[in-house]
Input
Amino acid sequence: MSNIDDLNIDANALRTFLTVLDEMSVSRAAERLGVSQSAVSHTLDKLRKIFDDPLFVREGRGIESTARARELRTPVESVLDDLKSLTDHRKFDPRAEQMEFTIAANDFPIQLIFPKLLKEVSEEGINLRIRFIPSGIPSVSILRASRYRMLITPTPPNDPDLEKVSLLQAKMEIFYDSSVMKPPKTRQQLAESNYVDVRFSDTESSLMALPSFDTSKMTPMISVPNFSSLTPMIKGTDRITIQLAAMKLGLLKELDTAPLPFKTNALNLFLIWHRRENDDPAHQWLREKIIGTVDSIAKS
Output
């Protein structure tokens, strides 16, 4: 029988375990948690004794989780959720809170929403720390609810445990430089255009948000890793891109726009979170801040 006291498992240790499981790196987990690598290693050593399992083993230059560690993810998340629920109905004052959020989003919603939001929050004397990670085209297989607390994307994963609200609606449009060229007027002209694509990975492209068009006919002249790179690649050239019309509010405001030469439905930019966060007052407060900020930008 183990002589380890089960009550020796604290929430910080479990949070450290999940962070290492997410990052698959002690150094990255330490950076994310704001502690030293030795502190993370010490916590893992304690958990190895409690769970009687290595949890993480060396694999080349990195680490790999054991089967036991992967099995522990769901029960550990459940325990942390239950602990957090004890304070969900506490009296909440954002000025008295030390709030920290990890938000998955691409550079378009980050640039559109958060400079204004964070300026207002700072002026109100509220201590809010946000860590952004890229979302790409999120899918259920890569969704790790414990890794981030919010997701902003026009392509939400199909998961019944996720809640979502539409931040804005917009159609996909052609962005180009009218001083150099006229926009394509037909599907054929569009397919033959000098297209600049945004690729988040080898298999993820921003064109995936345009299901009504056969994108296999389009061979991008240039592929860039983020939306911020589009304007420099298009301004003063005959290149085009197809993106959400709402980008005219921010990253692509220097470019001209034209409708696509075929009918498309408007897309939503969603704010998404796990339902376990529904009643958390800090989470509710930030959700309302994000929604209010987008409303004010759209009306300006």
